[in-house]
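Extended Data, panel c. Modelled sequence:
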Amino acid sequence: MSLKNVNTALITVCTLFVLWLGLSFVLAPEASTHGVGLPVWPAGNGDGFLIMKGTRELAMGLIIGVLLITGHRRALGLVLLMEAVAPFGDMINVLAHDGPLSAAFGIHGLTSAFIAVTGLLTLRETGRAHTAPVPRTA
């Protein structure tokens, strides 16, 4: 299996997960807080912040999906690297609020690492294409 096929599979998993996560926060914000390492969101209008998080996740998933579908592989690799910052920030947030280490590193840290490694692999794939020798014509 080629690097491009592996990357496409990883990116597809990443895209679907981010879209699912976004939808879960938009459609069921209070249910989405369980297991992410922070205390349950307070009652009242606090779910608006979770819906905001969900729309952020949806936008991130759509960006990845559009770049994947349109074949902009180098931009896709760069965007994945940038988007790895969001779960990294979530990890820092959980740690700063004395959340469980398992959630901070096991959920958010691994997600950030997965997205970053996928971005690096995609950039490696596109780097090869840019360095391939161009055949000369006589």
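The CA atoms of residues 77 and 122 lie 5 Å apart. This feature is highlighted in the accompanying rendering.
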